[in-house]
Amino acid sequence: MAIVSSSQSAPLRRRRKSLPKWLPKISGAFGALSPSLAARLLAFIFTRPGRQKLPHWERDWLLQSAGQPLRLNSGLTIPIYEWRGFEPMAGVRDEAPLPTILLVHGFGGRAGQMGGFAAPLVAAGYRVVSFDAPAHGAAPGNRSSLPDMLDVTQEVAAHLGPLAGVVAHSNGAAAVIAALAQGMQAEKLALLAPMPDVEAFLSRLAARLGFSPRVADLTQSRIEARYDLPFSALKAASLAPELSQSALILQDVDDQIVPLAEVEALAKVWAGARLLVSEGLGHNRLLRDSASIAAVLAHFGRPTLR
Are 209 and 42 in contact (CB under 8 A)? Predict the structure, then answer.
């Protein structure tokens, strides 16, 4: 593991939106009165990503792509977005395939958030593909979780074939690590604000909302039972030591979603990882930061055509 510090010029710091002061008190009282019902509520909150209107720059990025549907094993159809350096003639699209890099958004995100990486990677000689996971972006559905993201990432990767690389954010990065541990093929990785421990994140969310540790434990049990998959099987620090891929990990000291200490612990046990630490970008602005995009581009370099 190598750690590099990257200072941003004149960073714009944004305070995290504070919750109403009465909410934690109400949640705490509700949890004390009925831990089981409180756990159902927290599980609902934890697995429902919000959808947001596309900013104009994300819309512009998506309009530069070619879209197509992909039907998943679940029966849902999600949109796939592809960027490449030229418009192929009919009938020759796959005769000389370019090395592919997959962009994977995080919980509550969408493919458009990752679009800032598309043009630089296409200019470098890659084919770039992204998708909206179920319950995100333009995809159908209303519930999502890390196991769901793991499944869809594996399906999309299998559809595309072996990948030259993956750029993934937050919960999507956690899904990519789990997918690689289960056999997904990718040569290099760039992980932005990865979420190494979904159990720890659930505990932090529960505490912030005012729910007790018991409610958090019951919530975790509900979600694990729904997917028949324990959170411990998704812990990145337990999976990373078995991975051989070269990984660039970007994390900001002002990230209010994922603590820097968790990401440092992940990088420490990953022999092929290099951690680049920035300041003033928080959890999401890494995705549009020019220095972060440049670092990812340098990590992948020029593709090797086969």
Answer: yes
Q: How far apart are the C-alpha atoms of 238 and 146, rounded to whole Å?
A: 16
Strand order in the sheet with 273-278: 2-5, 273-278, 246-252, 186-192, 163-169, 100-104, 127-131, 77-83, 66-71
In whole angstroms, give the CA distance from residue 111 to residue 136.
Answer: 9
Phi-psi region of 154 (alpha: psi -120 to 50; beta: other; left: phi over 0): alpha
Q: Is beta strand 273-278 parallel, antiparallel or unpaired with respect to 2-5?
A: parallel
CA angle, 189 as apex, 251 and 264 as ends, to 5°? 35
Other CB atoms within 10 Å distance of the CB of residue 66: 13
What is the rounded distance in angstroms from the CA atom of residue 62 to the CA atom of residue 45? 29
> Does residue 177 contact residue 243 with C-beta atoms inside 8 Å?
yes
Contact between 54 and 62 (Cβ < 8 Å)? yes
Of 140, 127, 129, the closest CA to residue 71 belongs to: 140
What is the C-alpha end-to-end distance of the chain, expressed in Å? 30
Over its length of 306 residues, how does the chain's per-residue pLDDT go in tens digits?
Answer: 444 555 443 344 445 566 677 677 788 787 888 999 999 999 999 999 988 889 999 999 999 999 999 999 999 999 999 998 755 444 445 445 789 999 999 999 999 999 999 999 999 999 999 999 999 999 999 999 999 999 999 999 999 989 999 999 999 999 999 999 999 999 999 999 999 999 999 999 999 999 999 999 999 999 999 999 999 999 999 999 999 999 999 999 999 999 999 999 999 999 999 999 999 999 999 999 999 999 999 999 988 765
* Side chain identity, residue 292: S
